[in-house]
Amino acid sequence: MTNNTELSTVPSFIRNTVANIHPLDHTFLLHKVKDTWVEISYGEVLEKVDAISAWFLHIGIKKGDRLSLIIENGPNYVYYDQALQQIGAVNTSIYPTLTENEIEYILNDSGARTIICGNPFLFRKVLKVANNCPELIRLIPAFDDFEKFSDKVSLNAGVISFDEVITEGRKLVEQYRSAINAAREAILTTDTSCLIYTSGTTGVPKGVVLTHHNLTQNTINSLIQIPFVEKTDRFLSFLPLSHVFERTIYHIAIHQGSQIAFAQSLELLAKNMAEVKPTILCCVPRLLERIHDRAIKSGTSAGGLKTKIFLWAFEIGKKVRLAQEAGKSPGTILKAQHGVAEKLVFSKIKEKTGGRLKFMVSGGGALPKNIGEFFGDLGIVILEGFGLTETSPVMAVTERHRVIYGTVGRIIPGIEVAIQNVDTKHIYSVQTHDNFKEDTLTEEGEIIVRGHCVMKGYWNKPEETATVIDSHGWFHTGDIGRFFRGNLQITDRLKNMLVNAYGKNIYPTPVENTYLKSPKIEQVFLVGDKREYIAAIIVPAREALQENFNLQNEFFERTEAFVDEKEIVDWIGADIRKYSNELAKFERIKSFKVKRNPFSMEEGEITPTMKAKRKVIEKKYAADIDELYVGEAEED
């Protein structure tokens, strides 16, 4: 393989793969067309990439120009991204779930020149705001019959289908071949590769400027930490490529020569897993919680002997996991018992994932400790990663041989991570990959980082950049945590912290995760800042709710946001009381409302990685939250 020092720009990854890892006819991408999984080779990808690059150059796109994408995961994303990367343009991805106003803001803030639109719904959104975006010169629908939408609108920008871009580009490739090669060679490591707009949990989205150096070094150093990603692996991609976490996985796959299969949708993910049999899956904690809940329900709902075998198997799995975590080998009897548990229970659960998973990577939020332990007992390793868009993103990731559930692993090579006292700014400890010690334990404070992963800054926002990157080069993450047994452990977001009327600090995430152990509960949103006690909005698990109360779909279609039925409130309340016993008294939920439907991206209540937008939710349900504090709280 080419020396890593030569792999310093994003387009160098795929060129190295076809030069040193796989022939051009080797399968790189898989996607489903109607009922068939179609394989796409490296040669087919590069041929389209060069055609699109030629077309970009032909219409006057230059190095540094921002080119936008609002498109679902799939081969078209790869073609468009690789084509703009190799001529030094800047990928400016937009989450498909954003509103028209947010799309308009990003297009104008970035000065995007072109935008590819993945489907009619997204295209119509862009059509409504295109004339308000003066820098936009081309709209590129990636679907058929787009004319029935665009012909009804008088546009300043031109419209051309993605298929036509490729067709026209093929005619131009030889004319622009030298220019494409020269542009690729002229890319500097300090050049901007992409703008990724923050999800706006705390205000107006900001464009995070990530360079080729940020992205390539983050990929290479993450692989030092998890060296067992191989050219024979197959990733199943379903998290949005507009998010930095999935983008990193995409870069890792290209760097290693692994295949990428694109899931059709989140709803079809389970079916797709069984079909493509991935070896690696990257996901957010909420998906793992759903798999856990369904497995528990399936294994225990029948009762009798089947349930006893299921629970016995997980007890055996737990004993094996604990032995391995202690660096011991399970004894002969335990090994034999584990073999039976694997055959009767574990193998059946694993079959639903395709049966080939080596490990899963969880990112984008805190993974509840009990969920990690469940998969560990099952024999599927969950590696947790941690980082932000501003850190390219990976700062730490679990080592496969040193899994400590409830932590996010060891610091990756080449960066420094410190824990700083929030009030005094005293730095308790600075940790690197090289000074790792398994007995390291620090005070809790804000997590700060410096090194190759830190962004160049926020696009056109020097003042905002200066507030998060200090004069010593430390980026202040806004996350609270500590080092535990050498691994980084996240407590919560600094801005999420609630301070009750008595001055007690309460971090919502660990408290919410305690209540999320309940199979009755889907989402928890804590409130209580400057109040006498903690209250919450609770979203019940829909399937469990329907089964327990024989509810029809009409129940969930009612306009009232909250459920008033006493029997449902009491049903949830039983588990609130049960899990409250695991918490300090000042952390316990004393009053709550049951929300009929989950918080959603469509309503602007959560981010694409399922994080609650606290300001949005508190403002939207202000009157309902106030009602939680009328009268006396329920006694302990």
List keywords for this structure.
about 625 residues, alpha/beta, Luciferase, domain 3, Rossmann fold, GMP Synthetase, Chain A, domain 3, nine-stranded mixed β-sheet, 3 domains, eight-stranded mixed β-sheet
Structural notes for this entry:
By secondary structure, the chain is of the alpha/beta class. The relative contact order is 0.08. The N terminus and C terminus are likely disordered. 39% of the residues lie in helices and 21% in strands. The protein is built from 21 helices and 28 strands. The strands form 5 sheets. It has a 9-stranded mixed β-sheet with strand order 2-1-11-10-12-13-14-15-16, with helices on both faces. Strands 7-6-5-3-4-8-9-20 form an 8-stranded mixed β-sheet, with helices on both faces. The chain is globular. The protein folds into 3 domains: 215 residues, Rossmann fold; 189 residues, Luciferase, Domain 3 (Luciferase, domain 3, Roll); 131 residues, GMP Synthetase, Chain A, domain 3 (2-Layer Sandwich), CATH 3.30.300.30.
State the helicity in percent bands. Answer: 25-40%
Please identify the structural class as seen in this structure.
Answer: alpha/beta
CATH architecture of the largest domain: 3-Layer(aba) Sandwich
Principal-axis shape: globular
Mean pLDDT across every amino acid position: 93
What fold name goes in the CATH topology slot of the largest domain?
Rossmann fold
- Reading off the top of the CATH hierarchy, the class of the largest domain is best stated as Alpha Beta
Number of DSSP E strands: 28
Number of helical elements: 21
Distance between the termini: 63 Å
Oligomer: single chain
Find the CATH superfamily of the largest domain.
Answer: ANL, N-terminal domain
Spatial order of the strands forming the largest sheet: 2-1-11-10-12-13-14-15-16
